[in-house]
Amino acid sequence: MLNIVLFGPPGAGKGTQSQNLIQQYNLIHLSTGDILRGEITNGTPLGLEAKKLMDEGLLVPDEVVIGMISNKLDQNKDAKGFIFDGFPRTVAQAEALDQLLVSKSEAISAMIALEVEEEELGKRLLLRGKDSGRPDDQDPEIIKKRVHEYTTKTAPVANFYKSQGKFYSVHGLGTIENIFSDIKAVVEKL
Ligand code: AP5
Ligand code: MG
Fold first, then answer.
1. Helix%, strand%, coil% for the chain, nearest 5
2. Averaged pLDDT for residues 46-72
């Protein structure tokens, strides 16, 4: 199985490059942000709880997203592999993911980190916020909070995969096609 953690700050291009990866390698896309927004659209109790935190640019509790990922892994037993997009976002989530995969005799193949500087992230998200309808894309202060959550809680997850020899960095600035070529170059060598 090919199991890739696509990593990077808000607006780095995780969702965009996930679409390319799932097409190229026939993988299942697991984006915790997309799953949570689906819960909000459906008005579920989980969605209502998560919305308060997401609109503030804060992470939702680990146990909520770990439970969601566990369900999705169980629902896709025949998958050729998974792209984890926006998960794991804390070291506790990374540890839980390893355990879930071990219980299925599987493992993460690689973490691919998209590196993009903060000024560019803000520009991309505010631009998308004009018509995305995502409340967390509208306000520069909320975007700053998302980046702060990333820096303090999520960035350390890179060390978790570095210590396993699974960390790869890709520069996330430039055309979507060129960035995807760099990502493919990493995947082809795994
Ligand atoms: P989530 O939905 O994961 O959002 P995010 O990571 O903050 O950021 P984005 O999804 O906006 O960015 P992206 O890297 O996918 O970039 P994209 O391809 O869209 O999380 C939202 C919230 O949910 C969190 O704040 C948290 O509350 C909660 N949450 C989710 N997962 C969680 C977890 N595991 N634990 C706890 N809480 C969790 O691109 C962005 C824009 O840039 C787009 O408009 C795109 O068209 C454009 N773009 C892409 N590539 C390029 C390029 N090369 N050049 C120019 N523009 C580009
Ligand atoms: Mg995304």
1. 60, 15, 25
2. 97
Q: Does 110 contact ligand 1 (Cβ within 6 A)?
A: no
Pocket test for ligand 1, best of 5, 17, 32, 34 (most atoms within 8 A of CB): 32
Please tell me the pTM assigned to this model: 0.98
CB-CB contact of 33 with 136 (8 Å):
no
Please choose, from the candidates 12, 114, 28, the residue with its C-alpha nearest in 3D space to the C-alpha of residue 71: 28
- Lookup: tokens for 49: 């709880």
Tens of pLDDT, residue by residue over 66-103, are: 999 999 999 999 999 999 999 999 999 999 999 999 99
Domain assignments of the chain as residue spans, ordered by start: 2-189
Domain 2-189 has CATH 3.40.50.300: yes
Q: Which residues surround ligand 2, an ion (CB under 5 A)?
A: 14-15
Catalytic site residues? 14, 89, 128, 134, 146
100 vs 113: CA distance, rounded Å: 22
For 111, the token pair is 């973490």
